[in-house]
Amino acid sequence: MKYTFAILAALLAASVVAQPAPAAPSKPNIVFIYADDWGWGDLSCHGHPWLKTPHLDRLASAGIDFRQFNVLNPVCSPSRTAATTGMYPARFCVHQHFAPGTNVQRGMPDWLDPKAPTLARFLKNAGYRTGHFGKWHLTNSGAVGAPLPAAYGFDESAVFNGPGPQGGLHDTAPNAVRFIRESKGGPFYVNVWLHESHTPHVPTPESMEKWKSLDEQKQVYAAVITDGDNAVGQVLDALKEAGVEDNTIVIFSSDNGPEWTGKNKHFGAKNAAPGSRGYDTYYSVGSTGGLRGRKRSLFEGGVRTPFIVRWPGHAPAGAKNDKTVVTAVDLLPTLCAAAGVKLPDDYRGDGENLLDAFDGKEVSRKRPIFWEWRGNNTEPDWWPRLAVREGDWKLAMTYDAGRVELHQLVDDRAEAKDVAKEHPEVVARLSKMAAEWKASLPEKPNPDCISKEQPQPKAKKQPAGQPRKVTPEQRAKAMARWDTDKDGVLTLDEYKAGLKGQHNLEGRFKGFDKNGDGKLTREEFVGPSKE
Question: What is the dihedral of CA 527, 109, 253, 257, to 10 degrees?
Fold first, then answer.
């Protein structure tokens, strides 16, 4: 009998030992779709009256639509720096977009420091296959000696507006689809950084045909949005076909608010055929969804953008989160936490791990948010140089705090009511916080990130026998004459009309246009005010 019990005990013990260990949860794949100049209101699920975004609506219906997401700068290069590093772009002196020949003059490097911490590198070191497809703009195509995407942790890339293997404006999604198919056997991280809806607008003929019932201006923009939405659809379909959609985090966002609607219709010569080199800013009729300001503004229309997260089994389908304030610098710590990647002990990021928010919980952020803007400072919405948000308070200010506006965003998302006079104690506290943050930033870029071959300015040709130096007073008078619509800035057309066919006008215009926005402010054309 004892012998029988011994045999049974041995068999039971063997069966326990033989049971396989439960499989460890696999690391989620991560797809980060980053659009360009795509306004908060440019989604049909955000209530746009005539734009249709069925694939983005599908994404939102299967995940969380975060409605208080902010980028950390209202133009592309610094916004992308924040999302890449989890740190404020000003910590790397990336204040505006990278542009050939003007970075150093604007106190910027020629590329993001490749020694900066990056999400791609952290994930690659943890076993992820990493890819970047589409716009780069963490340098520019003309920067001699700029590092390739591989230096920032990417195994594979095909870019535009950057160095290395090139991809066309409409190649982004197909390249990402191929990468997904080839990577389905293990964890992967891929950037899908779309061109839409940046200028030049280059809509496909199919999308133009789809919207032929609209007027010309709306037709071009609707077609561009459709092309971008279709790219999202291609990526979502590829994840499903590869059998990995249930274990993939998909994020859609935009690098800043929508571009201004300008006067210029077509790139290239004045009489260029429509669409010959793309459509210009006349067709940029993007929507902020009622937010104040647009691209290049620190008000919400410039820095609050769409942010949708789909993560099956985690993010509840069809949820709308109006409470949790998420920023671009939160992406690195949050996605590393989702992947089970421990951040290095010496990493000093500016974001928070908001993984609980991705799981559907309403999370209150603990850290304030800071912005700096050094570009266009015209009225009515581009004058703030610094901004800070703490809780529901947001303060916009000049560097010396001589001009401030205070808004309580929970009740005033449009920033229409300035309550600075009613809350002087809040103004004082936030102004001090912003000034202290500004003082903590480096004054000069890392010299290792400046091209050793800087473009030399071309000598200006003067008519024979007529060398002359134009004074600021003469420029001021000329600007007053040429500014025919009296909006305080000069467009290229106004500049050309004023100089009546003189040589190299486009090149001379670009020489003044330090921030590359296609307009000349008084400060750019005449010089700093003496007031």
Answer: 0
**Cα–Cα distance, 81 to 309 (Å, whole number):** 20
More confident residue, 513 or 281: 281
Residue 63 CA to its chain's centroid (Å): 21
- Comparing CA positions, the residue from 311, 309, 420 lying closest to residue 66 is 309
Q: Residue 292: what pLDDT?
A: 98
Residue with tokens 């060398």: 467
- Is-above-0.90 flag for pTM? no
**Residues near 367 by Cβ (< 8 Å), separated by ≥ 6?**
350, 351, 352
CA distance linking residue 167 with residue 148, whole number of Å: 14
| pLDDT tens per residue across span 93-108 | 999 999 988 999 999 9
In this predicted structure, the answer to whether residue 8 has a pLDDT above a threshold of 60 is no
> What domains does the chain contain, in order, with CATH numbers?
29-358 (3.40.720.10), 471-525 (1.10.238.10)
Strands 307-310 and 319-321: unpaired
Burial string for 460-471 (b: 16+ CB within 10 Å, else e) reads eeeeeeeeeeee
Phi-psi group of 243: left, alpha or beta (phi > 0 → left; psi -120 to 50 → alpha; rest → beta): left
